[in-house]
Amino acid sequence: HIEIIWEDVRTAFFAKSGAAGDFAGYTLTNIAIVTDAITMTDDVQKTINMESATNGLEVCYNRVFATSTTLAQGVNTANISCRKAVSQAKIAYTVCMDKTKMVDVTADSFKSVPFDVERWQYRLGSLYFPKENVQSDGTQADCAESYINLIQTFGVLKHTHMESSVSFTDFKTKVGLLAASFERDQELELSALPVNNSRTVELDIQFDAVTSAGLTRQLYTFLQYCGVARTFIDNVASSI
After folding, report:
1. 157 CB contacts (<8 Å, ≥6 apart)?
2. Which of 5, 94, 169, 231 is most buried per CB count within 10 Å?
3. With contact defined as beta carbons under 8 Å apart, do 64 and 224 qualify?
4. Rounded to whole angstroms, how far apart are CA atoms 209 and 213?
Protein backbone atom coordinates (compact mmCIF):
# COMPACT_ATOMS: atom_id res chain seq x y z
CA HIS A 1 0.00 0.00 0.00
CA ILE A 2 1.49 3.34 -1.06
CA GLU A 3 0.00 6.63 0.08
CA ILE A 4 1.17 9.99 -1.31
CA ILE A 5 0.23 13.28 0.36
CA TRP A 6 0.99 16.40 -1.67
CA GLU A 7 2.32 19.53 -0.01
CA ASP A 8 0.43 22.80 -0.32
CA VAL A 9 1.26 24.22 -3.75
CA ARG A 10 2.37 27.51 -2.20
CA THR A 11 4.89 25.69 -0.05
CA ALA A 12 6.11 23.21 -2.66
CA PHE A 13 6.98 25.76 -5.36
CA PHE A 14 7.67 29.44 -5.74
CA ALA A 15 7.65 31.87 -8.65
CA LYS A 16 11.17 33.07 -9.46
CA SER A 17 9.79 36.00 -11.41
CA GLY A 18 8.40 37.43 -8.20
CA ALA A 19 4.88 37.85 -9.55
CA ALA A 20 2.19 35.76 -7.87
CA GLY A 21 0.00 35.89 -10.97
CA ASP A 22 2.64 34.09 -13.05
CA PHE A 23 2.16 30.94 -11.02
CA ALA A 24 -1.03 29.06 -11.85
CA GLY A 25 -0.27 25.54 -10.64
CA TYR A 26 1.66 22.45 -11.60
CA THR A 27 1.06 19.13 -13.35
CA LEU A 28 2.73 15.79 -12.66
CA THR A 29 3.25 13.47 -15.63
CA ASN A 30 4.88 10.10 -16.22
CA ILE A 31 4.84 9.07 -12.57
CA ALA A 32 6.79 5.87 -11.94
CA ILE A 33 7.99 3.84 -8.96
CA VAL A 34 11.39 2.30 -9.64
CA THR A 35 12.56 -0.67 -7.58
CA ASP A 36 15.45 -3.11 -7.71
CA ALA A 37 15.03 -6.87 -7.64
CA ILE A 38 17.86 -9.21 -6.61
CA THR A 39 17.76 -12.98 -6.98
CA MET A 40 19.83 -14.80 -4.37
CA THR A 41 21.31 -18.25 -4.63
CA ASP A 42 19.53 -21.21 -3.06
CA ASP A 43 22.09 -21.49 -0.24
CA VAL A 44 21.70 -17.83 0.69
CA GLN A 45 17.89 -18.04 0.64
CA LYS A 46 18.03 -21.17 2.81
CA THR A 47 20.26 -19.47 5.39
CA ILE A 48 18.07 -16.35 5.53
CA ASN A 49 14.88 -18.39 5.88
CA MET A 50 16.38 -20.48 8.71
CA GLU A 51 17.55 -17.36 10.56
CA SER A 52 14.22 -15.62 10.02
CA ALA A 53 12.27 -18.63 11.29
CA THR A 54 14.24 -18.83 14.55
CA ASN A 55 15.80 -15.58 15.77
CA GLY A 56 14.49 -13.18 13.17
CA LEU A 57 16.50 -10.84 10.95
CA GLU A 58 17.34 -7.47 12.53
CA VAL A 59 17.79 -4.35 10.44
CA CYS A 60 18.79 -1.04 12.07
CA TYR A 61 17.79 2.19 10.34
CA ASN A 62 17.35 5.89 11.11
CA ARG A 63 13.99 7.42 11.90
CA VAL A 64 13.13 11.10 12.43
CA PHE A 65 10.65 12.79 14.76
CA ALA A 66 9.74 16.43 14.09
CA THR A 67 8.52 19.17 16.43
CA SER A 68 7.07 22.45 15.17
CA THR A 69 7.08 25.68 17.22
CA THR A 70 5.79 29.12 16.26
CA LEU A 71 7.26 32.30 17.74
CA ALA A 72 5.05 35.37 17.50
CA GLN A 73 6.38 38.57 16.00
CA GLY A 74 8.85 40.21 18.36
CA VAL A 75 9.54 37.09 20.46
CA ASN A 76 13.25 36.23 20.39
CA THR A 77 13.65 33.42 22.97
CA ALA A 78 12.33 29.87 23.04
CA ASN A 79 12.69 26.58 24.90
CA ILE A 80 11.67 23.75 22.59
CA SER A 81 11.06 20.17 23.79
CA CYS A 82 11.02 17.03 21.62
CA ARG A 83 8.55 14.82 23.44
CA LYS A 84 9.51 11.48 21.95
CA ALA A 85 10.71 8.48 23.97
CA VAL A 86 13.40 6.51 22.14
CA SER A 87 16.10 4.06 23.17
CA GLN A 88 18.86 5.58 21.01
CA ALA A 89 18.75 9.29 20.14
CA LYS A 90 21.51 10.14 17.67
CA ILE A 91 21.18 13.71 16.37
CA ALA A 92 19.01 16.77 16.89
CA TYR A 93 18.88 19.74 14.53
CA THR A 94 16.69 22.83 14.24
CA VAL A 95 15.89 25.14 11.34
CA CYS A 96 14.27 28.58 11.63
CA MET A 97 11.96 29.76 8.85
CA ASP A 98 9.90 32.87 8.13
CA LYS A 99 6.29 31.76 8.62
CA THR A 100 4.85 34.44 6.34
CA LYS A 101 6.92 33.14 3.41
CA MET A 102 5.82 29.54 3.84
CA VAL A 103 2.55 30.29 2.01
CA ASP A 104 3.91 32.89 -0.39
CA VAL A 105 4.34 31.67 -3.98
CA THR A 106 6.74 34.54 -4.72
CA ALA A 107 9.20 33.44 -2.00
CA ASP A 108 11.36 30.37 -1.43
CA SER A 109 9.40 28.77 1.40
CA PHE A 110 12.16 26.27 2.23
CA LYS A 111 14.81 28.94 2.78
CA SER A 112 15.73 29.50 6.41
CA VAL A 113 15.99 32.89 8.08
CA PRO A 114 19.49 34.42 7.65
CA PHE A 115 21.55 33.59 10.72
CA ASP A 116 20.69 35.84 13.68
CA VAL A 117 21.11 33.49 16.66
CA GLU A 118 22.75 34.92 19.76
CA ARG A 119 22.71 31.79 21.91
CA TRP A 120 21.73 28.10 21.56
CA GLN A 121 22.29 24.79 23.32
CA TYR A 122 20.58 21.38 23.49
CA ARG A 123 19.92 19.58 26.75
CA LEU A 124 19.23 15.89 27.26
CA GLY A 125 18.50 15.21 30.92
CA SER A 126 21.50 16.58 32.82
CA LEU A 127 23.76 16.54 29.74
CA TYR A 128 24.35 19.56 27.52
CA PHE A 129 25.29 19.58 23.82
CA PRO A 130 27.63 21.26 23.24
CA LYS A 131 28.95 21.42 26.80
CA GLU A 132 29.09 25.21 26.63
CA ASN A 133 26.30 27.10 24.91
CA VAL A 134 27.17 28.53 21.51
CA GLN A 135 27.16 32.32 21.62
CA SER A 136 27.47 34.97 18.94
CA ASP A 137 26.59 38.61 18.41
CA GLY A 138 23.54 37.59 16.34
CA THR A 139 25.06 38.52 12.99
CA GLN A 140 26.05 36.46 9.96
CA ALA A 141 29.67 37.46 10.50
CA ASP A 142 29.81 35.62 13.83
CA CYS A 143 28.34 32.18 13.11
CA ALA A 144 31.47 30.12 12.43
CA GLU A 145 31.09 28.05 15.61
CA SER A 146 27.52 27.05 14.70
CA TYR A 147 28.69 26.09 11.20
CA ILE A 148 31.51 23.91 12.58
CA ASN A 149 29.03 22.19 14.91
CA LEU A 150 26.79 21.43 11.94
CA ILE A 151 29.41 19.80 9.71
CA GLN A 152 30.93 17.98 12.68
CA THR A 153 27.54 16.55 13.68
CA PHE A 154 27.02 15.08 10.22
CA GLY A 155 30.50 13.56 10.08
CA VAL A 156 32.15 15.89 7.58
CA LEU A 157 35.12 16.53 9.89
CA LYS A 158 35.95 12.84 10.33
CA HIS A 159 38.20 12.67 7.29
CA THR A 160 40.30 15.30 5.57
CA HIS A 161 39.08 14.27 2.12
CA MET A 162 35.40 14.85 2.94
CA GLU A 163 33.78 18.11 1.89
CA SER A 164 30.58 19.65 3.16
CA SER A 165 27.81 20.18 0.61
CA VAL A 166 26.75 23.24 2.63
CA SER A 167 29.16 26.13 2.21
CA PHE A 168 29.75 28.72 4.90
CA THR A 169 27.98 31.32 2.77
CA ASP A 170 24.92 29.08 2.31
CA PHE A 171 24.87 28.39 6.04
CA LYS A 172 24.76 32.10 6.87
CA THR A 173 22.05 33.04 4.38
CA LYS A 174 19.98 29.96 3.47
CA VAL A 175 20.49 26.92 5.72
CA GLY A 176 21.31 27.90 9.29
CA LEU A 177 20.81 24.46 10.85
CA LEU A 178 21.65 24.24 14.56
CA ALA A 179 22.81 20.67 15.09
CA ALA A 180 24.19 18.55 17.92
CA SER A 181 25.16 14.89 18.14
CA PHE A 182 24.23 12.68 21.11
CA GLU A 183 26.77 10.00 20.19
CA ARG A 184 29.34 9.43 22.93
CA ASP A 185 31.66 7.92 20.31
CA GLN A 186 31.07 9.49 16.92
CA GLU A 187 33.57 7.24 15.17
CA LEU A 188 31.55 4.09 15.87
CA GLU A 189 28.07 5.68 15.91
CA LEU A 190 26.89 2.96 18.30
CA SER A 191 26.63 4.97 21.51
CA ALA A 192 23.46 7.04 21.19
CA LEU A 193 21.59 8.14 24.31
CA PRO A 194 18.07 7.19 25.49
CA VAL A 195 15.22 9.69 25.74
CA ASN A 196 12.28 9.20 28.10
CA ASN A 197 9.79 11.17 30.17
CA SER A 198 12.48 12.32 32.61
CA ARG A 199 15.16 12.87 29.92
CA THR A 200 13.61 14.95 27.15
CA VAL A 201 15.53 16.71 24.41
CA GLU A 202 15.28 20.49 24.82
CA LEU A 203 16.68 23.39 22.84
CA ASP A 204 17.33 26.72 24.56
CA ILE A 205 17.69 29.43 21.93
CA GLN A 206 17.82 33.22 21.72
CA PHE A 207 17.66 35.33 18.56
CA ASP A 208 18.65 38.90 17.85
CA ALA A 209 15.97 41.23 19.21
CA VAL A 210 16.20 43.70 16.32
CA THR A 211 15.54 41.17 13.54
CA SER A 212 12.86 39.45 15.65
CA ALA A 213 10.85 42.66 15.94
CA GLY A 214 9.32 42.28 12.48
CA LEU A 215 9.54 38.51 12.06
CA THR A 216 7.16 35.63 12.78
CA ARG A 217 9.30 32.52 13.13
CA GLN A 218 8.47 28.88 12.48
CA LEU A 219 10.99 26.54 14.15
CA TYR A 220 11.28 22.89 13.14
CA THR A 221 13.31 20.61 15.40
CA PHE A 222 14.16 17.13 14.15
CA LEU A 223 15.25 14.24 16.37
CA GLN A 224 17.04 11.45 14.52
CA TYR A 225 17.00 8.12 16.33
CA CYS A 226 17.68 4.45 15.71
CA GLY A 227 14.88 2.08 14.78
CA VAL A 228 15.09 -1.72 14.62
CA ALA A 229 13.01 -3.88 12.29
CA ARG A 230 12.88 -7.56 13.20
CA THR A 231 11.70 -9.74 10.33
CA PHE A 232 10.30 -13.25 10.55
CA ILE A 233 8.86 -15.39 7.78
CA ASP A 234 5.27 -14.58 8.70
CA ASN A 235 5.53 -11.04 10.18
CA VAL A 236 7.67 -7.94 10.71
CA ALA A 237 8.00 -6.04 14.00
CA SER A 238 9.52 -2.58 14.45
CA SER A 239 10.84 -1.05 17.68
CA ILE A 240 12.40 2.27 18.65
Report:
1. 148, 151
2. 94
3. yes
4. 6
| pLDDT tens profile 118-170 | 999 999 988 999 989 999 988 888 899 999 888 888 887 766 666 667 888 88
Phi, psi dihedrals of residue 213, rounded to the nearest 5°? -60, -35
H or E element that contains 52: helix 42-54
Largest Cα–Cα separation, the chain: 68
Cis peptide before 130 (omega within 30 of 0): yes
Closest C-alpha to 173, from 145, 193, 143, 211: 143
- Contact assessment for residue 101 and residue 111, using Cβ atoms and an 8 Å cutoff: yes
Task: Return the beta strands (E) in 76-200 as ranges.
Answer: 77-82, 86-98, 117-124, 127-135, 178-181, 193-195
pTM of the model: 0.77
Alpha-carbon 93 to chain mean position: 5
Distance CA 194, CA 210 (A): 38
